Amino acid sequence: MSKPALEDAVREQLQAYVDRNPLSSQRQVRAAKAMPGGNTRSILHFDPFPLAFERGEGAFLWSLDGHRYADFLGEFTAGLYGHSEQAILDALRATLERGLSFGGVNDLEPRLAELICARFPSLDLVRFTNSGTEANLMALALAVATTGRRKVLAFRGGYHGGVLTFGETPSPVTVPHEWVLADYDDVAGTRDLLREHGRELAAVLVEPMLGSGGCVPASQEFLEMLRAETSETGTVLIFDEVMTSRLSPGGLQQVTGVLPDLTTLGKYLGGGLSFGAFGGRADLMAAFDPTRPGALFHAGTFNNNVLTMSAGIAGLEQVLDDATLYDVNERGDRLRLALDAVARPAGLHVSGRGSLMTTHAGPPPYLPAAPLSREHALVKELVFFALLERGFWLARRGMVTVSIPVTDALCGELVAAFEDVVGTYQDVLL
Fold first, then answer.
1. Which has fewest Cβ within 10 Å: 25, 34, 171, 426?
2. Is 151 a catalytic residue?
3. Domains in the chain, ordered, with CATH?
4. Rg (CA), the chain
5. Torsion sign across C-alpha atoms 123, 127, 132, 134
6. Is 240 noted as a catalytic residue in this protein?
7. pLDDT tens, residue by residue, 80-95
8. Catalytic residue among 17, 185, 261, 267
C-alpha cells in the first residue's frame, strides 16, 4: 500500500464531499456558535464537517443539500422500522391527540412491559429508562446494591453508552466503578480474572456480540463460561442487548441459550423514539418495588412517556412478527457475505451477524481494543467518503445496519457500489 497515494485519494474524496455539501458546511458554522464543535452527539461528528439531513422516508434520507442516500446506518440499529412505518406514525398521531406529559402512570407502560418480558427469556420484570446508556447504569447500580460489592468486569473495546466506554482502559468520562478489564472472547484469560477476583465482583457487563466495538460475535464457549463462573461466585451477569436484541425475536440470549441475570435493552424497542429498559430475575428487580420497605429509588421524567410507549407497542404488535425479524436478519447475512467476498481480495473484511455488520481495514481477526494504524484509518476514511459520494449512508467506522424497508435490491446496489470503490482504488487498498 502506498501511503502517499492513499493520502491523495482521501484528499480528493474529501474535496469532492466539500464541493457537494455547502449547506451542511454552513450548518456546521452556525451550530458551532451554540454547541461545542457544533455538536451534541459526538459519534456523529466527522471532519471536515458532518453531513446534515432534513428528512427521511422508508429506507432513504435526504440531506440539506438535496442529495438522497440509502440509509444503511439505521440510526445505529434504533431505526429498525425505517423512517415512515405507517403503524407507528398512526400510533404517534393518535397519542398526540390525547396529550403529551401526564406526570403520572398510564395504561400504555404495562402493555409495553408485557410485550418485552414475553420476548426475552431472562426477563421476569422490567423497568424503563430513556436510553441504553441509562439502562446499563441502572443495571450496574442494581448489581452493586444487591451484592454489596464494588468491582465490575467489562471488556476492552466494549461500548455500553457514552459514560461506559472502554478501549485499552476506561475512557475519561466512564463512570468510576472499580473496573476489571478483560479481552473480549478470551475464554481462558477471562476465566482466570473471574476466579482471581471471585466474590469481589458485583457484575460482569458484556454484549453477546460487540456492536459499536466492531460487530464481533462472542463464541458459545465464551458465553457459557461467563454463565458458569458468575453463577459460582454470585456475580450478576448482565447482557447488554441494546443492539443485539434485534438479531432474533428473543435476542442472542435466545439463540445461544445462555441466560443472564439482567438484560439491558433500547434502540428499536421504542419504535424509533428515545428508549431504554433493564430487567431480569424477579428477586433482583424486586429491589425497585416501591411498595417494599427500603426499596431502591429509580426515577426519570420520561421513563414512561406516552409517545415512546405508543410507538413501542405499535412496532411490536403490528410490525415486528417473528417472520419479519428473521427475514431482515437473513437479508443481512446475505449482504455481509456478499460484501466480505468483495472486501477480502482488497485486504479488508466484514464481520457481524444478521442485520448488523462492520467493514474492517485489514484481514481478520479484528482486535476491538487495538488502535487503527494510520494506513487502516485512511482506508476506512476513503471507503466511507467514496460510498457517501455514491449515495450510501453508513457509519464512518464502517458499521452497516439492515432495516426492515431495506430490500434485497437495495443491498445489491450497496454491493455494486462497494465493488466500484474497491475497483477504483484497488492500487491504494492492496
1. 34
2. no
3. 3-80+324-429 (3.90.1150.10), 86-319 (3.40.640.10)
4. 22
5. negative
6. yes
7. 999 999 999 999 999 9
8. 267
